[in-house]
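As the work plan foresaw, our protein records have gained a structure token line. A representative record is set out beneath this paragraph:
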Amino acid sequence: MKLKKYIEPVTWLLISSFCGCVVCYFTYPHLITMSLTDQRDVGKVIISLFGTFLGFLFTLLAIIASLSSHQLIKNMTVTGHYTNLMLSSKILSSLLFTVIATYLATLFFIAPQLFAWATSLTVLTMAFGCRTIYKFFLVLNNLHS
């Protein structure tokens, strides 16, 4: 029964992975033929953008952790939603770090296939990130009540 709490984040991770693979499949010919300068520009933008997202995620985690005495957070802990939110946050932070590391590798190595794989990973992270950030906003929105 303890594995049941992992079903929702893993399901969304699989859905996000499918979306990333589909996008990579259909854009692969265009990604391979991109110039090296364009690939490096995209990599630099994604690294800075996802680094900022990672900082915001850590800030949200700190805010939620500081509100542990609030009744909503206590109820979330009892029902298991808090564990679900923390697991989703850990997965998202791992994905963000992996994307940053992959784009750093694309800046140092000339490999169009690595850039295509990094693009697929970016789509996966954005799709999973939308779900996780939505969960955070639900919690923050319901704190006042």
